[in-house]
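User: Hey, quick favor. My workstation is busy. Could you predict this chain's structure for me?
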Amino acid sequence: MLLENYTHSALGQVQSRIAMAAMTRGFCGADHTATPQMADYYAKRARAGVGLILTEGTIIHRSGDGYNNVPHIETAAQTESWRQVTTAVHAEGGKIFCQLWHCGRISHADYTGGAPPLSSTNRAAEGMNRQNNKPFGAPKAMTHDDIQEVVSQFVVAARNAMAAGFDGVEVHGGHGYLIDQFFDARINDRIDEYGGSVENRCRFGLEVMREVIAAIGGSAVMVRLSPSREMGGLYDWPDLHAMLEYLVPAAHGTGLQMLDISCANADYYKTSGRIIRLIRKAWPGLLIGGASLSQQQAESELSDGWLDMVTWGRALIANPDLPVRFRAAAPIAEFSRDMLSSLA
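Assistant: No problem, here it is.
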Protein backbone atom coordinates (compact mmCIF):
# COMPACT_ATOMS: atom_id res chain seq x y z
CA MET A 1 0.00 0.00 0.00
CA LEU A 2 2.82 2.39 0.88
CA LEU A 3 4.14 2.81 -2.67
CA GLU A 4 0.82 2.78 -4.52
CA ASN A 5 -1.09 5.81 -5.77
CA TYR A 6 -3.62 6.92 -3.19
CA THR A 7 -6.74 9.08 -3.43
CA HIS A 8 -8.48 10.76 -0.53
CA SER A 9 -11.61 12.91 -0.75
CA ALA A 10 -9.84 15.92 0.82
CA LEU A 11 -6.28 15.53 -0.39
CA GLY A 12 -7.01 14.22 -3.87
CA GLN A 13 -4.57 11.83 -5.57
CA VAL A 14 -0.96 11.45 -4.47
CA GLN A 15 1.75 9.28 -6.02
CA SER A 16 2.36 7.29 -2.83
CA ARG A 17 1.32 7.14 0.79
CA ILE A 18 4.72 8.47 1.86
CA ALA A 19 4.68 11.96 3.37
CA MET A 20 7.68 14.12 4.18
CA ALA A 21 7.31 15.46 7.72
CA ALA A 22 7.76 19.17 8.36
CA MET A 23 11.22 19.83 9.82
CA THR A 24 13.05 23.01 10.77
CA ARG A 25 15.98 23.49 8.36
CA GLY A 26 17.16 27.14 8.46
CA PHE A 27 18.44 27.74 4.92
CA CYS A 28 16.28 30.66 3.82
CA GLY A 29 17.56 33.50 1.68
CA ALA A 30 17.64 37.25 2.29
CA ASP A 31 14.62 38.61 4.16
CA HIS A 32 13.44 35.08 5.03
CA THR A 33 12.66 34.12 1.43
CA ALA A 34 12.66 30.67 -0.16
CA THR A 35 15.62 29.88 -2.43
CA PRO A 36 16.39 27.80 -5.53
CA GLN A 37 18.30 25.38 -3.27
CA MET A 38 15.12 24.82 -1.26
CA ALA A 39 13.20 24.18 -4.48
CA ASP A 40 15.77 21.56 -5.53
CA TYR A 41 15.69 19.97 -2.07
CA TYR A 42 11.93 19.41 -2.09
CA ALA A 43 11.72 18.53 -5.80
CA LYS A 44 14.30 15.77 -5.30
CA ARG A 45 12.01 14.06 -2.75
CA ALA A 46 8.96 14.42 -5.02
CA ARG A 47 10.95 12.99 -7.96
CA ALA A 48 11.70 9.89 -5.88
CA GLY A 49 8.00 9.31 -5.25
CA VAL A 50 7.09 11.12 -2.02
CA GLY A 51 3.35 11.72 -2.27
CA LEU A 52 2.94 14.69 0.06
CA ILE A 53 5.61 17.14 1.22
CA LEU A 54 5.06 19.23 4.33
CA THR A 55 7.52 22.11 4.23
CA GLU A 56 9.84 23.20 6.98
CA GLY A 57 8.10 25.40 9.53
CA THR A 58 7.29 28.70 7.84
CA ILE A 59 6.72 31.75 10.06
CA ILE A 60 3.37 33.46 9.56
CA HIS A 61 4.48 36.87 10.88
CA ARG A 62 7.79 38.29 12.12
CA SER A 63 6.35 38.54 15.67
CA GLY A 64 6.04 34.74 15.69
CA ASP A 65 9.64 33.96 14.73
CA GLY A 66 12.05 32.23 17.08
CA TYR A 67 14.73 30.58 14.94
CA ASN A 68 17.77 31.46 12.88
CA ASN A 69 17.34 31.67 9.10
CA VAL A 70 13.88 30.19 8.79
CA PRO A 71 11.52 31.21 5.97
CA HIS A 72 8.47 33.42 6.38
CA ILE A 73 5.31 33.81 4.30
CA GLU A 74 4.18 37.27 5.39
CA THR A 75 5.25 39.71 2.68
CA ALA A 76 4.62 39.75 -1.07
CA ALA A 77 8.29 39.00 -1.75
CA GLN A 78 8.34 36.07 0.68
CA THR A 79 5.15 34.71 -0.82
CA GLU A 80 6.39 34.98 -4.39
CA SER A 81 9.71 33.30 -3.47
CA TRP A 82 7.81 30.11 -2.60
CA ARG A 83 6.42 29.80 -6.14
CA GLN A 84 9.70 28.29 -7.39
CA VAL A 85 9.34 25.58 -4.72
CA THR A 86 5.74 24.66 -5.50
CA THR A 87 6.40 24.71 -9.25
CA ALA A 88 9.40 22.39 -8.88
CA VAL A 89 7.51 19.91 -6.69
CA HIS A 90 4.48 19.85 -8.98
CA ALA A 91 6.72 19.24 -12.00
CA GLU A 92 7.86 16.03 -10.28
CA GLY A 93 4.33 14.82 -9.54
CA GLY A 94 4.26 15.69 -5.85
CA LYS A 95 1.88 17.66 -3.66
CA ILE A 96 3.16 20.21 -1.17
CA PHE A 97 1.64 21.91 1.87
CA CYS A 98 3.18 24.89 3.65
CA GLN A 99 3.50 24.42 7.39
CA LEU A 100 2.29 27.60 9.11
CA TRP A 101 4.27 28.27 12.28
CA HIS A 102 4.13 30.67 15.22
CA CYS A 103 6.72 29.91 17.89
CA GLY A 104 5.00 31.66 20.79
CA ARG A 105 7.22 31.68 23.87
CA ILE A 106 9.82 29.35 22.30
CA SER A 107 11.57 32.51 21.22
CA HIS A 108 13.34 35.67 22.34
CA ALA A 109 13.05 39.38 21.61
CA ASP A 110 16.11 38.94 19.35
CA TYR A 111 13.75 37.28 16.85
CA THR A 112 10.57 39.32 17.33
CA GLY A 113 11.81 42.82 16.57
CA GLY A 114 12.48 43.61 20.22
CA ALA A 115 8.94 42.88 21.42
CA PRO A 116 8.30 40.15 23.99
CA PRO A 117 7.26 36.82 22.44
CA LEU A 118 3.54 36.08 22.65
CA SER A 119 2.04 33.15 24.54
CA SER A 120 -0.90 31.92 26.57
CA THR A 121 1.14 32.81 29.66
CA ASN A 122 3.67 35.36 30.89
CA ARG A 123 5.99 32.59 32.17
CA ALA A 124 9.12 31.97 30.16
CA ALA A 125 9.96 28.51 28.85
CA GLU A 126 12.60 26.74 30.91
CA GLY A 127 16.17 26.30 29.71
CA MET A 128 18.36 27.96 27.13
CA ASN A 129 17.40 28.94 23.61
CA ARG A 130 19.88 27.08 21.39
CA GLN A 131 19.29 29.61 18.62
CA ASN A 132 20.98 32.50 20.44
CA ASN A 133 22.39 30.79 23.56
CA LYS A 134 20.27 32.94 25.84
CA PRO A 135 17.43 32.03 28.21
CA PHE A 136 14.05 31.99 26.49
CA GLY A 137 12.47 35.43 26.61
CA ALA A 138 9.75 36.36 29.10
CA PRO A 139 6.57 36.27 27.01
CA LYS A 140 3.53 38.50 26.98
CA ALA A 141 0.29 36.73 27.86
CA MET A 142 -1.86 37.48 24.84
CA THR A 143 -4.77 39.87 25.19
CA HIS A 144 -8.04 39.27 23.34
CA ASP A 145 -6.85 41.73 20.70
CA ASP A 146 -3.55 39.85 20.37
CA ILE A 147 -5.43 36.58 19.93
CA GLN A 148 -7.60 37.96 17.16
CA GLU A 149 -4.56 39.52 15.49
CA VAL A 150 -2.68 36.21 15.45
CA VAL A 151 -5.74 34.39 14.10
CA SER A 152 -5.77 36.97 11.29
CA GLN A 153 -2.05 36.38 10.69
CA PHE A 154 -2.69 32.66 10.22
CA VAL A 155 -5.43 33.50 7.71
CA VAL A 156 -3.22 35.90 5.75
CA ALA A 157 -0.39 33.36 5.70
CA ALA A 158 -2.76 30.63 4.46
CA ARG A 159 -4.01 32.87 1.65
CA ASN A 160 -0.43 33.75 0.76
CA ALA A 161 0.46 30.05 0.62
CA MET A 162 -2.35 29.32 -1.80
CA ALA A 163 -1.32 32.34 -3.91
CA ALA A 164 2.21 30.86 -4.06
CA GLY A 165 0.85 27.63 -5.54
CA PHE A 166 0.76 25.36 -2.49
CA ASP A 167 -1.82 22.57 -2.50
CA GLY A 168 -2.68 23.41 1.10
CA VAL A 169 -1.30 24.36 4.49
CA GLU A 170 -0.51 22.57 7.71
CA VAL A 171 -1.30 24.60 10.84
CA HIS A 172 1.39 23.78 13.42
CA GLY A 173 -0.50 23.03 16.61
CA GLY A 174 2.13 20.87 18.29
CA HIS A 175 5.62 20.55 19.77
CA GLY A 176 5.20 23.23 22.41
CA TYR A 177 4.71 26.15 20.01
CA LEU A 178 2.00 28.81 20.28
CA ILE A 179 -1.21 26.83 19.73
CA ASP A 180 0.12 23.99 21.89
CA GLN A 181 0.87 26.57 24.61
CA PHE A 182 -2.89 27.11 24.83
CA PHE A 183 -3.73 23.39 24.72
CA ASP A 184 -1.25 22.38 27.42
CA ALA A 185 -2.54 22.79 30.99
CA ARG A 186 1.03 22.88 32.32
CA ILE A 187 1.64 26.08 30.38
CA ASN A 188 -1.76 27.75 30.00
CA ASP A 189 -2.47 29.48 33.32
CA ARG A 190 -5.14 31.87 32.04
CA ILE A 191 -8.36 32.58 33.94
CA ASP A 192 -10.35 33.95 30.98
CA GLU A 193 -12.28 32.05 28.30
CA TYR A 194 -8.99 30.85 26.77
CA GLY A 195 -7.79 29.04 29.89
CA GLY A 196 -8.89 26.69 32.64
CA SER A 197 -11.28 24.10 31.23
CA VAL A 198 -10.56 21.74 28.37
CA GLU A 199 -13.03 23.63 26.19
CA ASN A 200 -11.40 26.97 26.97
CA ARG A 201 -7.87 25.77 26.31
CA CYS A 202 -8.96 24.40 22.93
CA ARG A 203 -10.72 27.64 21.96
CA PHE A 204 -7.77 29.46 20.36
CA GLY A 205 -6.64 26.48 18.28
CA LEU A 206 -10.18 25.84 17.08
CA GLU A 207 -10.59 29.50 16.15
CA VAL A 208 -7.43 29.31 14.02
CA MET A 209 -8.74 26.15 12.32
CA ARG A 210 -12.17 27.63 11.70
CA GLU A 211 -10.91 30.88 10.21
CA VAL A 212 -8.20 29.32 8.04
CA ILE A 213 -10.72 26.80 6.69
CA ALA A 214 -13.20 29.60 6.00
CA ALA A 215 -10.47 31.40 4.05
CA ILE A 216 -9.07 28.58 1.88
CA GLY A 217 -11.40 25.58 2.30
CA GLY A 218 -11.31 22.41 4.36
CA SER A 219 -9.68 20.35 1.61
CA ALA A 220 -6.59 22.58 1.83
CA VAL A 221 -5.99 22.49 5.59
CA MET A 222 -4.16 19.97 7.76
CA VAL A 223 -3.37 20.39 11.46
CA ARG A 224 -0.36 18.99 13.31
CA LEU A 225 -0.91 17.92 16.92
CA SER A 226 1.53 16.31 19.37
CA PRO A 227 -0.43 15.28 22.48
CA SER A 228 2.34 12.82 23.39
CA ARG A 229 6.03 13.28 22.61
CA GLU A 230 9.56 12.89 23.88
CA MET A 231 10.91 15.76 26.02
CA GLY A 232 13.60 14.29 28.25
CA GLY A 233 11.12 11.48 28.87
CA LEU A 234 7.54 10.82 27.86
CA TYR A 235 5.52 14.06 27.81
CA ASP A 236 1.71 13.87 27.56
CA TRP A 237 -0.87 16.60 27.86
CA PRO A 238 -1.90 16.44 31.56
CA ASP A 239 -5.58 15.67 30.84
CA LEU A 240 -4.88 13.69 27.70
CA HIS A 241 -8.09 11.68 27.38
CA ALA A 242 -10.41 14.58 28.16
CA MET A 243 -8.55 16.77 25.67
CA LEU A 244 -8.75 14.20 22.89
CA GLU A 245 -12.41 13.41 23.57
CA TYR A 246 -13.27 17.09 23.16
CA LEU A 247 -10.72 18.40 20.65
CA VAL A 248 -10.87 15.72 17.96
CA PRO A 249 -14.64 15.94 17.29
CA ALA A 250 -14.53 19.73 17.72
CA ALA A 251 -11.73 20.00 15.14
CA HIS A 252 -13.78 17.95 12.69
CA GLY A 253 -16.70 20.26 13.43
CA THR A 254 -14.71 23.23 12.11
CA GLY A 255 -14.55 21.51 8.72
CA LEU A 256 -11.07 20.09 9.26
CA GLN A 257 -10.50 16.89 7.28
CA MET A 258 -6.78 16.12 7.77
CA LEU A 259 -4.77 15.48 10.94
CA ASP A 260 -1.03 14.89 11.43
CA ILE A 261 -0.25 13.26 14.79
CA SER A 262 3.41 14.02 15.38
CA CYS A 263 5.96 12.76 17.88
CA ALA A 264 9.20 14.04 16.28
CA ASN A 265 12.23 11.94 17.26
CA ALA A 266 10.48 9.51 19.60
CA ASP A 267 9.19 5.95 19.81
CA TYR A 268 6.08 6.00 17.63
CA TYR A 269 4.29 3.26 19.53
CA LYS A 270 4.75 5.01 22.89
CA THR A 271 3.75 8.46 21.61
CA SER A 272 1.85 9.29 18.43
CA GLY A 273 0.98 5.67 17.65
CA ARG A 274 -0.74 5.44 21.01
CA ILE A 275 -2.66 8.66 20.30
CA ILE A 276 -3.68 7.42 16.86
CA ARG A 277 -5.18 4.30 18.44
CA LEU A 278 -7.16 6.48 20.84
CA ILE A 279 -8.63 8.77 18.19
CA ARG A 280 -8.93 6.68 15.02
CA LYS A 281 -12.59 5.72 15.57
CA ALA A 282 -13.49 9.32 16.43
CA TRP A 283 -11.67 10.80 13.44
CA PRO A 284 -13.30 10.17 10.03
CA GLY A 285 -10.78 12.20 8.02
CA LEU A 286 -7.25 11.69 6.71
CA LEU A 287 -4.83 10.65 9.45
CA ILE A 288 -1.05 10.71 9.01
CA GLY A 289 1.86 9.97 11.34
CA GLY A 290 4.87 7.74 11.75
CA ALA A 291 8.24 9.54 11.63
CA SER A 292 10.37 6.60 12.80
CA LEU A 293 8.78 3.47 11.33
CA SER A 294 10.41 0.80 9.21
CA GLN A 295 8.87 0.00 5.84
CA GLN A 296 7.29 -3.15 7.27
CA GLN A 297 5.86 -1.28 10.27
CA ALA A 298 4.48 1.39 7.97
CA GLU A 299 2.75 -1.20 5.79
CA SER A 300 1.23 -2.70 8.93
CA GLU A 301 -0.14 0.66 10.14
CA LEU A 302 -1.71 1.21 6.72
CA SER A 303 -3.18 -2.26 6.27
CA ASP A 304 -4.57 -2.29 9.82
CA GLY A 305 -6.31 1.01 9.14
CA TRP A 306 -4.54 3.12 11.76
CA LEU A 307 -2.94 5.48 9.25
CA ASP A 308 -3.81 6.72 5.76
CA MET A 309 -0.30 8.01 4.99
CA VAL A 310 3.03 7.57 6.77
CA THR A 311 5.45 10.38 7.57
CA TRP A 312 9.24 10.25 7.59
CA GLY A 313 11.54 13.07 8.61
CA ARG A 314 15.18 12.29 9.32
CA ALA A 315 15.07 9.26 7.02
CA LEU A 316 14.17 11.60 4.15
CA ILE A 317 17.06 13.90 5.00
CA ALA A 318 19.45 10.93 4.91
CA ASN A 319 17.73 9.32 1.91
CA PRO A 320 16.27 11.80 -0.60
CA ASP A 321 15.33 8.74 -2.68
CA LEU A 322 13.67 6.87 0.19
CA PRO A 323 10.66 5.62 -1.87
CA VAL A 324 13.03 4.28 -4.53
CA ARG A 325 15.02 2.44 -1.85
CA PHE A 326 11.83 1.00 -0.38
CA ARG A 327 10.72 -0.21 -3.81
CA ALA A 328 14.08 -1.86 -4.50
CA ALA A 329 14.50 -3.22 -0.95
CA ALA A 330 17.80 -1.34 -0.92
CA PRO A 331 19.69 -0.38 2.27
CA ILE A 332 18.50 2.74 4.09
CA ALA A 333 21.23 5.22 5.06
CA GLU A 334 21.34 6.16 8.74
CA PHE A 335 20.71 9.79 9.69
CA SER A 336 23.55 11.72 11.31
CA ARG A 337 23.49 15.28 12.65
CA ASP A 338 26.15 16.48 10.21
CA MET A 339 23.49 16.04 7.48
CA LEU A 340 21.68 19.06 8.94
CA SER A 341 24.43 21.39 7.74
CA SER A 342 23.35 21.29 4.07
CA LEU A 343 20.32 20.94 1.83
CA ALA A 344 21.23 17.71 0.05
